[in-house]
Structure formats: structure tokens, C-alpha cells
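Open question from group meeting: does this chain pack into something compact, or does most of it stay loose? Before anyone orders reagents, we agreed to write out a predicted structure and look at it together. Recording both the input and the output here so the notebook holds the full record.
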Amino acid sequence: MAMMDNKEFLISHIRNSFITSDDTGMCEMIIDVDDQEHRGGFASDSGLESSDNELSHSYDILPDMDYGAHRRRSNTAQRLERMKKEKRNQSKVKNISWKDNNLKYNAEEKGHLFEKKVVIPSEQPDTPLISRLSEQLDSSASLGENPFLEFAKFDGKASVGVSTKKIDIFLTMVPPEDRPYPMTVVVIATAKIQDLIGLICWQYTIEMREPPLQENIDVYCLHIAEDDGEVDTDFPSLDSKEPVSKFGFTKLALVQKDVPTSSNKPSIIVTVNVPHRGFNKFQIDSLNISMRDILEKVLKRRKIKVRPGQSYNLEKQVEPGLPVDLDANLSSMDTLEFCLVREHSSRGDYIEVDDGKTSNLAESLTSHQYKSYIVNMIHKIRTKTEVQLGISGEKVEIDPVASKSGTKLFRQKPVTYEADSIASCDMIEEKDGGKSVFRLTYFGHDYKHHDFEGDSEMCKEIVHKMNNILELRLSPVRKDYVAQRDKKLKKRESFHKT
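C-alpha cells returned:
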């Protein structure tokens, strides 16, 4: 306790304690004592005298002061540092005052600034001189303009302050080794699918990809794609009129529409009339086909029963009673219309066919008359919607049947297809309980289909009616579809044989 009463010890202890945290040395100088016994002045350990009239005190301790090994600098020190930096920066700046020059420019005195260069003439006098700039302009002009320039405004990378979407686009027209690598496109969210297609074509052309695209964007469409770039053909292409913001897909595929193209070669249509059974038309690729092959086509198409001891032949339509040479080619007939007759009979005789499933003339005409059916339309996720299917020789109509219990999610919208856009109508499944499923294939931007379910007899009638209509119309869509189908069947047969 004696040591705690010693003022000099306390002052020395306090001073030494502040030394560790005060690098200014001020605490050591201001700590002092006011004592009656040292009124003439008290000599501190520092050797300085302090007056008894000047009371000494330490710095005020503030709550935000930092303690420890690293003490925060004061605001004054920070301001001084900033001032020093500003002075250093100002020393690097040079101010130049602007003065008007009253002297006029003398071209003769300053002519050395624009010396005329001597152009060396070409060794070939007939060859005109071309500058380097002209060569660059000519080479850039040869690249041609981007035909999709109008869609550049939908590029999200060049837009500021608007909502955009980043989509990976797989390009199905590039070489196979490049197809797994998508092209990333950033499009503004307000653009439509058609605008996105144009933007893809614009970026494709800018990046100078191969092969070059067709200048008409209507020949392209967008499909949903898997992560590896495979096109999901189970879903139709995206509607070109819908906005991009409606869809949440991050991976799409640019696909060129498979539009049936009419051949430059003239179509060769052979007509064969069948007594009391109407007629058949066949598209022939070449006039070198034999008449025996045409006869076999008719018998196969009509499913005509050839009984033992019977045979059939062809006659020219304009020459009744004169059978043609079946070993001769069509090119030697001078006509494309014939009549099927049974040997030892006339054209008026009745020709039997297999259980009446082939169309006769009356049945063909009846098939073109309008008739409606109530069937169930099967959707992708196996839900069904009751619809009215109307069929005529000109069009096919699908109208939803009003139902209180029907959900809005799978409600079918009314739609009409022209008969020439129908590719086929086939039975695909027979179920228990007298139900069957048939498929109606049509052509939009590509081949698509609708599946329907109904009573087996009604489904067979619908398929039979549609096939009669398709057989008589022979539309380009129908011919192209049949050609592709036959090609696939031949490939499949050759594969199984190997």
C-alpha cells in the first residue's frame, strides 16, 4: 500500500503504460502532479519543469479509439496525406494559355508538311494504278452485305437497360463434327420467335459459318433440343408469332423445313379404269416401265382375286377389245389411259375384288361428300379430348365438343386442314373392347400428325374414306410422303437382309 501512496511511482507507472500505445510522445510530456510540497516546480523524469499554475492532463479517451499494435491514423493525418497526393499530381499538369495567332499560314513556307509523293509508274502501261485503300474497299465489298441485317436490332448483347435471354442454338445444317457445339445467342425478351430466327441467321452469317444459309428465314424453324444437340421431334416447332419470353427453353435447334419440292421432270400419270369399280391413277418415274408391271400394280392395288384358270390384261381406253402387249414398254403405247379386262370377257363384265374393301366409282364419289364423326383426340401426354372430325373431298375439320368437365389445359382449338395438305391416314392400334386408334398425318412446316380413338368400325370407315380421297387427289404432299415412306421401307428391308 505504501507504493500506491507514492505519487511519483504512480505518475511513472501511468506514463510508462501510455508509451506502448502512444507513438507521439505527448502522454509522457503532459502527465504531471500538483503538489503543495513542490509548489516551486516539480522536475519530472523527463527533465522538464512544469508550473503549478499550468495544470497538466492527458488526452481524452474516446470510445472509438483503436488500441493495439496498429493504431488508426487520425483524420488530420489522412487529410495531410491527400493534400500531398494532390500536390504531386498537380506538379505533373502543365497549364498552357491560349493565344490567338495573328500570322497567316503561308503555304509556300509550310509546303514541306504536305510534300507531293512521286508515284512510280507500273511496268505494264495498260494496268491502272490502284491504291491500297481501293484494294481494301474492293475486297470488303466482295464479301457482300449481310441479308439478315434488319434482325441485328434484336441482339441483346448490344442492348442496354432491356431484359434479355441467353439461348444455346444447335445448328443442324453445319457439318456433323460441328453440330454438338451450339452457337450462343443473346436476344431481347420482347422479340418474337421469327425475330430470333432472323437474329440467329444474322449472327451465323457474321461469324462466317459454313454452309451459307438461304436468305429467306421462312424456310427455318426452331425445335426443342436436348443437351447433346439432338432435336426433340416429339414436339412441334415453336410458333414463329409467339414472343421469346413465353418459352423457358435454354437450348434450341435451328432446323431447315423439309418442304416438298416438285421435280423439274414432268409427272407421268397412268390411269387404269376398272369396269364397275372406278379407276386408279399411278405416278410413273419413267416411260420405260413395262405394261406387265403396270398390270401388277393395278391387281395389287385393287386386291383382285385371280382364280385358277383366269388371267387379266390391259386394253387402251380408246381401243376396246384389243389387248396390249404386256412385254412392251409404256413409251410404245402412245397413251396413258388404259382399261383392265379379264381374259375371254368384255369391258362390261363385272370384276371381283377382295371382300369389297377397294373403292368403286360410286364409293369414290361418296367419299368426297362431307361426313362428321365423334372421336377422341389423343394428346402427347395420353390425355383425350372429344372432338368432331369432319371429312370431305376438300378439307378436314377438327372441332372440339363442348364439355363442362373438360379442362382448359388440353382443350383443342378448332382447326381446318386442306385435303391437299393431308399426307396419310392409317390404323395404328386395335384395342380391347372394340376400340381402335388411327393416325392422320399432315404437312405444315414439316410432317406432323394427330392420333384419334373411336369405335373400330368407325375408325376403319374414316381411314377408308380418307384413303379414297388421297388416292384420287394425288397431291404433291401425298406423293412426297409415300416416296419417303417407301424409301425407308427399302432401307429397312436391305438392313434385315444383310
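Observations to bring back to the group:
The chain has four domains: 7-50, 153-256, 268-342, 364-491.
The radius of gyration is 48 Å.
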